[in-house]
Amino acid sequence: MTVPAIRFDRLGQTFITRSGPTEALRNVSFEVGRHEFLAILGPSGCGKSTLLRMIAGLLAPTVGSLQVFGHPVTEPRDDIGIVFQKPTLLPWADVEDNVLFPARHKHGRVSAQERERARDLLAMVGLESSARRMPDELSGGMQQRVGIARALLMDPDILLMDEPFSALDALTREVMGFDLLRIFSERPKTVVFITHSVSEAALLADRVLVMTGRPGTVLTDVPVPVCRPRGPETANERAIHELTAYLRDLLLNRQAA
Ligand SMILES: Nc1ncnc2c1ncn2[C@@H]1O[C@H](COP(=O)(O)OP(=O)(O)OP(=O)(O)O)[C@@H](O)[C@H]1O
Fold this sequence. Notes:
The protein is of the alpha/beta class. It contains 8 helices and 10 strands. Helix 7 (198-204) runs antiparallel to helix 8. It binds adenosine-5'-triphosphate. Residues 15, 17, 22, 24, 42, 44-50, 214 line the site of adenosine-5'-triphosphate.
């Protein structure tokens, strides 16, 4: 039996705050297979970012268990990369040095191979000619590409993405999504991708997990019945239209209830 990359088993998370306990997640069970792309949809505050923080080892579950490659998560792991909503680049470092930050942070220096890898990654995200530019000289989409290259520097097995394209305009967002799929086709990764966009989830993911409102739990987990490679034309496929309509109804009805 193959070990899943990520496995949540009846996991719960309750935060204790000054105003009392907040039950953020309840009885969450699901798995993500190796090199699978899972999108997570759910209402605001249902615990999506909390799930990512737990996978990243930044927060321990209150009850239940979480395993990464068959082992409990006890601390932040090197083999997990994170892309946030905003790329939070170092303003005083140029693009290449921002991409190299994880290596410098880990061993206090950067090897020639890591520098070469940073250049390869910048080429992969279409920024080879911007290596010496400073973050404030870049557009939002370019900054987000630097954040993606940085998350890939240490070649993580797992990539966690928390609404990575939400600050971008619709067209850039679509282009970036398909760029991401091309990058993963060259360098497969296990991806957990949080989004509020139903169509983005359907177009990019292998599976879409829908969560209920707080306390968040898994409402449904649906496969995306469309093969790869995918591109802008995928949006015209009937299966995508049907899935998008189904997911939208589900979310709207839950919200109305
Ligand atoms: N450190 C914390 N202390 C107390 N409560 C927290 C903490 N982190 C998250 N919460 C609460 O847990 C719940 C889930 O938060 P989380 O950020 O995971 O939701 P989300 O689904 O990612 O929301 P959004 O879609 O708005 O980004 C919220 O009610 C939030 O207020």
